[in-house]
Amino acid sequence: MTGKSHPAISRRFGIGLVAFAFVASACTPSGGAETQGSDDAVEPDPAELSITPEADAEELPPNSPITITAEGGVITDVQVDQAVSEEAEEEDDSLYEMTGSLNEDETEWVSHWNLRPGAEVTVTATAENEAGEATELVHDFTTHEAVPGQRLDLTSNFPSSGDTVGVGMPVVINFDLPVTNKVEVENSMMVTSEQEIAGSWVWQTDQLAVFRPEEYWEPHQNVTVDLNLAGVEAAEDVFGHRNYQIDFEVGRELIATMHVPDHEMTVEIDGEHERTMEVSNGAANREFDTTTSGVHILMERYENLTMDSATVGIQEDEPGYYNVDVEYAVRTSNSGEFIHEMSSNSAIGSGNTSNGCTNLRMDDAQWFFTNTMMGDILDTTGTDRDFEWDNGWGFWQLSWDEWLEESQTGESHVTDGSGPVGPVHGEDL
After folding, report:
1. Quick check: 372 and 330 in contact, CB under 8 A?
2. Are 323 and 309 in contact (CB under 8 A)?
3. pLDDT tier at 87 (50, 70, 90 boundaries)?
4. pLDDT the model gives residue 89
5. DSSP SS3 for 247
6. How far is CA 200 from CA 15, 138, 191, 336, in A?
7. Is it true that the peptide bond before 213 is cis, omega within 30 degrees of 0?
8. How much of the chain is helix, strand and coil, in % rounded to 5?
9. Strand order in 154-158's β-sheet?
10. Which runs of E-coded beta strand occur in 143-263?
11. What three-state secondary structure class fits 246?
12. I need a surface site. Which of 24, 56, 96, 163 has the fewest CB within 10 A?
């Protein structure tokens, strides 16, 4: 069921009629006629149901809410079936199970999410009166399709289902079209974790939304992201095309720390010291080759990588140009910073001579590459170049209050799976 279930309600009798019978018997003369009255119960009227949208409505906007009300009873069950074309039937129907909110007196139910575009929708509602007698009402209607070229969809997401990630991992969603109705889309994306925590979405661009918890995830737990995008109006006449679900695991807690002037990196796993490695960081002759200070999230990784400064704006005929092949490279920013092998750097452990990356000897580079994963934390200090919060995944550079200020809603979402925290339907519906 999509609402709440209720136990049978015990039958209540007509109190007024019972009192009247008692008064009549008290006024009858002794030895007179038999007392008048009735022990018959008053049967309640059947509950009355109403459903919006109206029955047989056609081509409704898919961001239309479903509202069910009951008079003379309580709502006991709501079922919403959304039949689509054979092409779309290959999707997992469980992604489209409609849930809703029931008010305190159980007389009004409102759908949580929007409807599938191009669907034949059947809403079946049931209510019970005080005697436990059921009333059922069915409405059928259709929603209009999302027009090709105006269908909001995903281009990528991090993490992916099945990934195991570090405790600093954000949820990064890249859309294929710009989103102007950010609040409705933001509220349509629900994060649920085994260990509940407050979190919030922030839009880095019109096509990129990021969820970050208030603090690092608790390690060793599962997280689910339900992207209830079907039917949401992302921009004028642009509707979400389908729903997605992402399931990932937060693994052990790995925190690497590095004070650049000390020329070493320390790694702790689940609070225990694991390894100390000698390093060489940026020479700091200019901003470009100064290693950034701040909380970095480990990103993508390559066993072999050609590092070409042209990719970050320094061309072959300009001072500082380089083109070098490295091994075991782990990205820490979008401005070209990696942790990677550079055994040829004789200053490892004693000086900072790199172009801004963190250089390791081969054995340490192999260990770091093998034992870290996307979402692990590198906390760097000791330089005069601060890591920008929007430089790659610098999201932990913002305090929690600053993060909420960047959010469209300014509200946190508790990861308890309780449903949307704000509007997802059309404003005028």
Report:
1. yes
2. yes
3. low
4. 57
5. strand
6. 53, 38, 9, 28
7. no
8. 10, 35, 50
9. 154-158, 171-175, 208-213, 198-205, 413-414
10. 151-152, 154-158, 164-165, 171-175, 189-193, 198-205, 208-213, 221-227, 233-235, 238-240, 244-250, 254-259
11. strand
12. 56
2 CB contacts (<8 Å, ≥6 apart)?
Answer: 77, 78, 79, 80, 97, 98, 99, 100
With beta carbons less than 8 A apart as the criterion, state whether 264 and 380 touch: no
b (16+ CB within 10 A) / e for 268-280: ebeeeeeeebbbb
Q: State the pLDDT at residue 90.
A: 65
List, for residues 174-223, the tens digit of each pLDDT value.
Answer: 999 999 999 999 999 999 999 999 999 999 999 999 999 999 999 999 99
Instruction: Report the pLDDT value the prediction gives residue 411, as an integer from 0 to 100.
Output: 87
Q: How far is CA 324 from the centre of its chain?
A: 40
pLDDT (tens digit per residue) in 298-326 = 999 999 999 887 776 777 777 767 788 99
What is the percent of the chain with per-residue pLDDT over 70, rounded to a whole number? 88
What are the backbone angles phi and psi of residue 384, rounded to the nearest 5°? -100, 20
Q: In this structure, what token pair is assigned to residue 100?
A: 């809703």
- Sheet architecture: strand order including 358-360: 301-308, 323-331, 338-341, 358-360
Place of tokens 């102007």: 180
Residue 30 has pLDDT above 50, yes or no: no
Contact 263, 296 (CB under 8 A): no
Are residues 80 and 139 in contact, defined by beta-carbon separation less than 8 angstroms?
Answer: no
What are the tokens at 33? 């006629």
Report yes or no: 67 and 429 within 8 Å, Cβ to Cβ: no
Q: What is the pLDDT of residue 24?
A: 34
pLDDT exceeds cutoff 60 at 395: yes
Nearby residues of 32 by Cβ (< 8 Å), 6 or more positions away? none
- Which pLDDT score, from 0 to 100, does residue 318 have? 75
Q: 418: exposed, middle or buried (C-beta count within 10 Å: 0-12, 13-18, 19+)?
A: middle
Mean pLDDT of the chain: 89
Give bridge partners of residue 209 from the DSSP assignment: 173, 203
